[in-house]
Amino acid sequence: MVSLKKQSHNRYQLIQRIVELSDSDSWREAKQEWCLVDVYRTQSLGECLCGHPIKEHCVLQNHENGNEAIVGSVCVKLYWFSVTLSFDVLELVG
């Protein structure tokens, strides 16, 4: 369970974990290996790879090795994709 205490996004932790799960050893190349495969919301808090509590989960999959990672919507927007439309659609459907 994730602590309710406010935490900041740890960019370096996110980068380190993504590189560890990638084939490439550099962030610039490693982030290109990932694609967004799913988004979902939960009532209970999860945890982004950066360590920040999240309710909006973005599932990334590495197209080179098949690894998956859960990243929060803030980090995915900052470093990869715009997911605003995906979560807007979830609100309409759910």
Describe the protein.
The protein has about 90 residues and is an alpha+beta fold. It has one domain. The chain is built from 4 helices and 3 strands, in the order H-H-E-E-E-H-H. The protein has helices spanning about 10-20, 25-30, 75-80, 85-94, and strands at about 35-45, 55-60, 70. Strands 1-2-3 form a 3-stranded antiparallel beta sheet. The longest helix is centred in the first third of the chain and has 10 residues, at about 10-20. Mean pLDDT is about 85; it is low at about 1-5.
- Which oligomerization state do the chains in this entry correspond to? single chain
Number of helices: 4
Strand order in the largest sheet: 1-2-3
Q: Residue-averaged pLDDT, rounded?
A: 83
Radius of gyration over alpha carbons?
A: 13 Å
Q: Find the count of extended strands (DSSP E, 2+ residues).
A: 3
Structural shape: globular
Overall tally of domains: 1
Provide tags for this entry:
disordered N terminus; three-stranded antiparallel sheet; alpha+beta; 94 residues; 33% helix
Sum this structure up briefly:
The chain has helices at residues 11-20, 27-30, 73-79, 84-93, and strands at 34-47, 53-62, 68-72. By secondary structure, it is an alpha+beta fold. It has a 3-stranded antiparallel sheet with strand order 1-2-3.
